[in-house]
Amino acid sequence: MKSLLLAACASIIIAFTSCGDNNRRHAPSDAPRVKITRFDRDIAAYPQLDSIRRVQFRDRYAGVLMMTVGPDTITDEAVATYARGRGVTMFVPDIKERFTTQDSIENVLTDVCYHLSGKLPEMTWKEIYGGVSTYNQSILMTDTIMLVGLNHYLGEDYPAYAYFEPYQRVVKTERHLPYDITEAMIIGRYPYVENESSSLLNRMLYDGAITYILMTSLPGADLSEAMGYTTEQTEWMMKNEGNVWRRIIEQGYLYSTDGSMASRLCRPAPASPAIHPDAPGAACRFIGYRIVDAYMQSHPDFEVAKLLSPEFYNSTSSLVNAGYSPR
To answer: Are 247 and 167 contained in the same domain?
Structure first.
């Protein structure tokens, strides 16, 4: 019986993670390539540069230095101090040792960029720089630049992550990086528009739309990876989807305008105890994804960009028209 249950779970996972495979495509060889410029490598070598090359460095990386050193302190002394600082000296050697899949990540991002160019035509990809982020945020952005803290993606077993909780460590891997970059790019162009009447449902639909786009854009997308779940957590959500949905409705959560509750139930967290003691964090984001997926199955010609419009995620009719009814 146990083996049959495991086989059933495996088949469900394949069905979930394969959603939209037929619609994914790889970029042609002549498509613009997404590159990650390795600021981390160059800043580590800054103290050894001569004065002329230091000026060239500061000119080349002016935008990144404004994010890392500070907008008013891009002097030779300030940059040299940053380069000798604990963040750079501690993490850059480990990044060099552990971050080994840049080409494959760039290939995935190139495919995603090409794929989304037709679905989200208003989204312009920022220049991507790999660096060190000493903040809790792994990705920092301006209008034109994205700085990815590669020190946040060195593997679940990286010793410096020992103080993080398991739900945080599970996404600190190279394989998760394309998901974070793509999501940040999307949110940067299509931010959530909240108002006084915004409900949990509205947040679920928006977060669900983001997850749907990840699942239908990244080659070989994996739902556990998109959600930041372990395989066991994804299995739990799939087996208990109907119960979770009924709990949301019965407790009056769905149309609640309590923004803090919406955040607790949709954002990454150790668990979702308001739903069930065993429910993983972001349980309502998972349900939001399932609603959006159901909507798109019923409306295959609906423009993907419209999923990210307030007219879609702030409308109750989006739920009604999805025909979502889990068992």
So the answer is: no
